[in-house]
Each structure stands twice: as C-alpha cells, then as structure tokens.
Amino acid sequence: MTIKDCVKKFSSELKLVTHIPAKEVEILIMYLLDKNSIWLHLNYNNEFEKVKELEKLVKQRATNYPLEYIIGKASFYGEQFIVEQGVLIPRPETELLVDNCLEILKDLEKPVKILEIGVGSGIISVMLALLVENIKIIAVDINPNALELAQKNAKKHNVLDKIEFRLSNLYENVLEDDICMTISNPPYIANDYKLPQNVEFEPKNALFGGIVGDELLKNIVKNTADRKIPYLLCEMGYDQKASLESFFKTFSIEKYSFYKDYESFDRGFTIKFKKEKDV
C-alpha cells in the first residue's frame, strides 16, 4: 500500500474526531518514519512499510486521544515543544499572552526578572527566554511532572541558564522582592463544566479553577498586589470578564485591559498596579 493509499484509507476513520483527518494521518506517517512534509509529498506514491503501526495509532486517535500525546510534540510560537501525558497541551491562543508580555517587556529597563505561575510544559517561559535577551525567569508549578517536562523543553531550546524551575503552589515558595511581572495561564474552568472528549485526557488540575472557575485567578491577582509586583498578565475564561473587572476595583490599579482570542472570545487580561508612592 502506498502512502497516498494509506492517507485515503485511514482518514475516513478520523472524520469524527478532527476537521483535518487526512492531514492528521500524514502527521502520524511522518512520526512513524521520522520524516518531514517535504519528504512525504515527494514520496507520496511510494510503498509504506508500517501499515500495522499506523493502523494502531489511527485507532488510538479515533478514541479522541490527543494527537500531540501520540507524537510527543506540539507547535507553539513557531517552535516545536516536547509534550507528555499528564501535562497540559499547548494552545495557540496562549501565543497572545506571550505577545502581550513582550510588548511590555520591550519598554522595561533590563535586566528583568519575571515569574511564571503554572509553567506546565514550559512554553511561555521558554519562548520569553528565547525572545528577551536580558531576562531571568522563575517558573513554578505544583506538578513535578510538569516541571520535569518544562526543564526538558528549556534544555531542548538552550535556555536552561535563564530559567529557575521551582515546585510551588502559586507564590508559596517565591520569596524574591525584585520581580517586575507575573505571567500565568492558570486553571480557570468551572469544576462542573463538561469537557470535550479530547480534553478529557488532559490533567484535571491544570484545567479546573474552582466552583466558579475564576477563584485561582482572583487569588493570583490578590497575591500579586500584596507582593507589590508591578505587572500581572493572565489567561482567563471567555465568560469571566465582568466578574474579574469588578474584582479589580478592590485594588490600587493604575490601568488594566482585556484581550480577545482568535475566535473573538475574551481570553486574558493585563494589570499594571500603582506604585506604592502613587497609592
């Protein structure tokens, strides 16, 4: 059976779990052969020797098991990151959080020290370390598996020297007083929300943020204000803007803003707290 025949045959089995079934079969073939898309299309009419292996992976994917966990990687901000089960899969909308962070950092006096709460696979900290020359990052998580994976990604991208990984529940093990910014993509889904089937395979403690969903976000806002850290940037749920905006008014904030994701849903916010002398 040729590669072309395999794509045609197995894509029909993935029509119910993805809007790009043929593309996903190609990705699985490239994974099995350790080849890129250029090679694939130059050899589209060649015989494929790993049909049984491909069939096994397609059946696994057909259960809604995430493609990223099968191939062990995901793309973020144009870079490839290692992905492992037990750690949240990177989402494209989190690139917007990085964009907003970079916009602020470009105007801050260097060097800068920032904190990431809930580092997960490390995509945010690693990208900031790659894109900002004079930066130090403290990256914390409550999940030891996440910290281990984030370290692997930092090593892969040669930025281990810029990031200190630390086991911590929010600010619990963060004592530094020279942090200029906190950035976080924390759990923000309400506990009773019914997850899509594909998301069911991801760690629940990286998804659910409380009964309402924004409890952890509000905790981060309060702790950041208490620590007198000037900037806070967070991702949030699409339906949490009103609740968070009302909560912001209980703090000494110079300015804040919300941003939307690629689907035009409210997806995150930026806060600049007032300096002590301005309060």
From TrEMBL:
Pfam families: MTS (PF05175), PrmC_N (PF17827). Residues 106-191 form the Methyltransferase small domain. Residues 8-72 form the Release factor glutamine methyltransferase N-terminal domain. One of its GO terms (biological process) is methylation. It catalyses: L-glutaminyl-[peptide chain release factor] + S-adenosyl-L-methionine = N(5)-methyl-L-glutaminyl-[peptide chain release factor] + S-adenosyl-L-homocysteine + H(+). The keyword S-adenosyl-L-methionine applies. Keywords: Methyltransferase, S-adenosyl-L-methionine, Transferase. GO terms for molecular function: peptide chain release factor N(5)-glutamine methyltransferase activity. Its EC number is 2.1.1.297. Gene3D superfamilies: DNA helicase RuvA subunit, C-terminal domain, Vaccinia Virus protein VP39. This is peptide chain release factor N(5)-glutamine methyltransferase. The gene is prmC.
